[in-house]
């Protein structure tokens, strides 16, 4: 996962150690929003409206009593369709501003009128505007230490109680359905697993719940699915492999470097000046392959960046030559890929690829540049690397090691007090489970072409105790959570149809079996 | 619950505010043990042997990363009967030295040979020798703040991993059955609820899991069941009510005070000197009623104190007169009760009832005088008080109020940094649930004559998804956990028979359904 190296570069670290941050959120949030109280937000084709509100007095630490500080957690809410004791659709926010998820989880908006549901998007602590220590939230280990998945789940538990007993009228018996994608999907599943009395069912989309040590996910699985996605879309594998060699070759001469600087429209401050600089370009491009595989939707979209429909197929048009091509031509294919991913609208004239000097880093755009890196240095230690051909078409950087990850973490967080003992790579699986022997009412949906699917829960039999595995055969990253679209594929339509049916089933069962008193 | 007032007196607090500490552990630990590594411990009739061991490097805080301190947790273990991948019987320790529970949970010792099980007793953090900050564990809110039920459960999770992967040979596929009584029973149930992948079933004996705000347990329920227990054993209710009046009347004169001091063999430092001192005597006696109801076993026992079989019945022999008796005779009945409870062996010559000046307070004997008080001031806020006749035969001190509890807590813990915001009385139910919609494989056993049974889980139908409710009709506090005895009642024999059957069933199902890889 070269994305990881990119993270480090973005954070001014030049080493090749690995982090496990989600590529998903290494990118600039492309969504325009107007963050103000009771704002009306418009999002391109969709027009979702919400009120921006706050849950006050949330304990910074739910599980101990050494720290009695509290903070306010942000959530977005729409009750236009809410009926008495109707369901609450709760998005369990992940690593980013909550507006991003509100605007890209059309499934909730589409289903709400059909179920008489309230729609709520809860922001994850330490992201967006939900900063427990304000501007100092990431300034000390003592502060950022409270950024953890269990604390976030407990925030959501408190929010559910508040919504049902105070915020909403006639909601004391409202069932809650959790929705989430990616890390947010993990949270929605874990919410049902740890708080089944508060959440009656969960849609956990593209949640790599098993991408941890102690489990059997191969460390090079991500890269492998990236390759699968691109080859499925018509890329000639060897052309991509050759292109890396071509870049390296061109970078070995002064004229070649000059060619690359011009070809890639690199700003002068991020010029390639010496042979080894080609690594920087390589990592930048690898990350594009990895990210594009995630957002390979069939219609134009702007989740991570503006892209045409089936962008991987478009990209493969640059890599499907059956002729032998020159080094320059190979490099041109790579430039075309980059221009497609970062400049589909054609507005950019130059690119800045050196995160040490470039201001437009993805982390900065996200708003919380140290959020996911912190999580990947504490409990979300996900083993990822590339083993090269035949597994994938990247350059080998396996194996993943804890030592390498620690080196990365110390470089970023050492100055604020990070030590080796803060990393607990076995905790997530020990805490949430390597299997879910009593869990019910969770849909784990995964896209066959989504690289994260390799760490998802799936089961050969379709259903175990209403734990449901849905594989969307032509699906990318949490495609099913998106709003319906005329170009939707049959497989995503089928996934959403099943999701709707299961939610209906869960709500019906809840109504039949719920204990009537004290329903929160 | 006058026990609560006693707690405060023990802690040099004279107010009448209430705490929710378990009477169970206000008493001196009567068990003799030799605490040393690999010690062999003998316990009267029973002869249980264990090795005293430690789990090292346990995080002080499992759920955040602000504090990377670790400590060592004590556990007792016996593997004499352990077979390859046999079950691990794990006692989830509660508020006291772990030896107390090892010696009084004969059920585990009795069943172990039949199942080829390892027997493990895990100490609860901040009790016994498991002090995360050594002698400073209770010195500051910053330290004792890490005394919480969720942190304790996570300790047990880490212990299970350690036992299965490091400590025990051939135990990677060992299922774990949790056992616990009282607060330990709550922990064993919550362990299955929160960590079903680590614990395959739980015996939660006399666990008042619902004795919290937001639930429907009446605040005077404890006192009511005490009364039920005593009246069932032949006490004449009016005689007890009259005795309180008699004590108050005697205390109203100098000669009466003198009489009481002599009658109760009070040490001079705890003499009753003025009329209002009778309250101190009353609270001391009320606590005896309340505690005796808990340990009303059919045979001589020494769990909280040495007692004859059916001690409540013996005590009722002092209160069953059908004649009108004098004030002195009423007082003599009360003295007989006290002498039975605290001096069954006849070795004591005097009594010290004033906790402000007496050294032999129950808390001091327990070793962690502030443990349960702390828990009752943070998350274990259990509403309890006495409403007087006809509910019970005590003097009314209802209603229970959070303000009263806070006053108590501030008096004890104010000087180490306790503030109002540290108390979170709604958290326990929000966290663990007001119902258990997905839980399986838990037996909730309760004694009909155990005052704590009023807060236990029960269900009219015998079984829901293998959540089993067993009521032991002549049972006191976690009677079923005790070792078998020739005088055992049919109802406890039946309870243990069912428990054995269910454990067998759970283990069989686990064997059939378990995912073979990675079983911890």
Automatic annotation (TrEMBL), chains A, B:
Recorded GO MF terms: dipeptidyl-peptidase activity; serine-type exopeptidase activity
Family, similarity comment: Belongs to the peptidase S28 family.
Pfam families hit by this protein: Peptidase_S28
Stretch forming the signal peptide: 1-23
InterPro entries named in the record: AB_hydrolase_fold, Peptidase_S28, Ser_carbopepase_S28_SKS
Name assigned to this protein: Lysosomal Pro-X carboxypeptidase
Organism: Thelazia callipaeda
GO biological process per UniProt: proteolysis
Record PANTHER family: LYSOSOMAL PRO-X CARBOXYPEPTIDASE, PROTEASE S28 PRO-X CARBOXYPEPTIDASE-RELATED
Keyword Transport assigned: no
Record keywords, A-Z: Glycoprotein, Hydrolase, Protease, Serine protease, Signal
């Amino acid at each position: 996962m070269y994305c990881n190296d990119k993270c480090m570069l973005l954070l001014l670290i030049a080493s090749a150690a690995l982090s496990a941050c989600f590529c998903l959120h290494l990118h600039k949030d492309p969504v325009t929003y107007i963050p103000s109280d009771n704002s009306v937000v418009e999002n391109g084709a969709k027009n979702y409206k919400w009120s921006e509100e706050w849950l006050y007095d949330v304990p910074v630490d739910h599980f101990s009593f050494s720290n009695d500080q509290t903070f306010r957690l942000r959530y977005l809410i729409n009750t236009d369709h809410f009926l008495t004791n109707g369901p609450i659709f709760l998005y369990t926010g992940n690593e980013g501003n909550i507006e991003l998820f509100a605007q890209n989880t059309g499934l909730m908006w589409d289903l709400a009128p059909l179920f008489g549901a309230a729609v709520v998007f809860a922001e994850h602590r330490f992201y967006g505007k939900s900063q427990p220590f304000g501007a100092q939230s990431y300034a000390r280990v003592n502060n950022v230490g409270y950024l953890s998945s269990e604390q976030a789940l407990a925030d959501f538990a408190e929010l559910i109680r508040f919504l049902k007993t105070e915020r909403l009228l006639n909601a004391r018996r409202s069932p809650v359905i959790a929705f989430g994608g990616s890390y947010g999907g993990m949270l929605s599943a874990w919410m049902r697993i740890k708080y089944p009395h508060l959440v009656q069912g969960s849609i956990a989309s593209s949640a790599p719940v098993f991408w941890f040590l102690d489990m059997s996910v191969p460390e090079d699985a991500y890269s492998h699915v990236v390759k699968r996605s691109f080859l499925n879309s018509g890329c000639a594998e060897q052309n991509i492999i050759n292109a890396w060699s071509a870049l390296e070759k061109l970078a070995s001469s002064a004229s070649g470097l000059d060619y690359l600087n011009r070809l890639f429209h690199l700003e002068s401050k991020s010029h390639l000046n010496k042979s080894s600089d080609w690594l920087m370009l390589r990592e930048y491009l690898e990350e594009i392959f990895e990210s594009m595989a995630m957002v390979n939707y069939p219609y134009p979209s702007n989740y991570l960046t503006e892209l045409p429909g089936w962008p991987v197929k478009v990209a493969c048009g640059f890599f499907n030559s059956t002729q032998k091509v020159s080094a320059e031509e190979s490099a041109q294919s790579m430039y075309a890929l980059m221009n497609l991913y970062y400049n589909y609208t054609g507005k950019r004239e130059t690119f800045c690829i050196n995160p040490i000097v470039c201001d437009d880093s993805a982390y900065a755009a996200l708003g919380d540049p140290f959020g996911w890196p912190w999580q990947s240095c504490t409990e979300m230690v996900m083993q990822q690397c590339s083993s090269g051909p035949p597994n994938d078409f990247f350059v080998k950087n396996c194996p993943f090691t804890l030592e390498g990850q620690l080196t990365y973490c110390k470089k970023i967080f050492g100055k604020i007090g990070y030590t080796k003992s803060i990393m607990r790579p076995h905790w997530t699986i020990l805490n949430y489970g390597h299997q879910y022997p009593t869990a019910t009412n969770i849909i784990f949906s995964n896209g066959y072409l989504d690289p994260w699917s390799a760490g998802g829960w799936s089961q050969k039999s379709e259903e175990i105790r209403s734990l449901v595995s849905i594989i969307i055969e032509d699906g990318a990253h949490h495609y099913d959570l998106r709003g319906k679209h005329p170009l939707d594929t049959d497989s995503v339509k089928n996934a959403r149809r099943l999701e709707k049916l299961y939610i209906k089933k869960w709500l019906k069962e809840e109504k039949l079996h719920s204990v009537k008193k004290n329903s929160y």
